[in-house]
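Quick one, probably user error.
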């Protein structure tokens, strides 16, 4: 079985709550994720102005800004010295490989791609394409600070 097919199967199992394992400590879904960024204002703008999330707080002394949609919250933390910060390399560093964000529909994924494809501070690794054999469709981008984001439409949401 191919790697991408296994990922698709696991995503389906998780979305159905079908693992059936004991959860002795009651851990549940993701509460929030914190990302260290080099360009706080630009990263906030990406989440708020491009994705339509809302700014819901922050800590000026850190500095940080918290952004959220109806499903999740991301805390964006400004690194101490952006000029000397080490950029993340997904194959060489321990840490966040990418953050995958579910998109409501294939149409909205393509609309997002159209919105960001000409933005100078966004790098698109690849445009919308099938994940493995499909129909799950995803694209991978780097937001202004270089955080790798995957936008993904589960196959169950795609009409065939």
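Nope, works fine. Designed sequence:
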């Amino acid at each position: 079985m191919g790697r991408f097919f296994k990922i698709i199967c696991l995503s389906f199992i998780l979305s159905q709550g079908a693992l059936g394992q004991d959860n002795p400590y009651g851990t549940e879904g993701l509460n929030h994720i914190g990302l260290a960024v080099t360009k706080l204002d630009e990263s906030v703008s990406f989440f708020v102005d491009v994705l339509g999330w809302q700014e819901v707080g922050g800590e000026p002394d850190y500095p940080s800004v918290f952004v959220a949609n109806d499903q999740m919250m991301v805390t964006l933390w400004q690194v101490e010295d952006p000029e000397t910060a080490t950029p993340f390399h997904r194959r060489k560093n321990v840490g966040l490989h990418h953050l995958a964000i579910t998109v409501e529909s294939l149409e909205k994924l393509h609309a997002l791609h159209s919105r960001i494809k000409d933005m100078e501070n966004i790098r698109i690794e690849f445009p919308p394409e099938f994940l493995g054999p499909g129909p799950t469709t995803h694209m991978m981008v780097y937001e202004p600070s270089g955080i790798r984001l995957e936008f993904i439409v589960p196959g169950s949401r795609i009409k065939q």
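The first strand starts at residue 32 and ends at 37.
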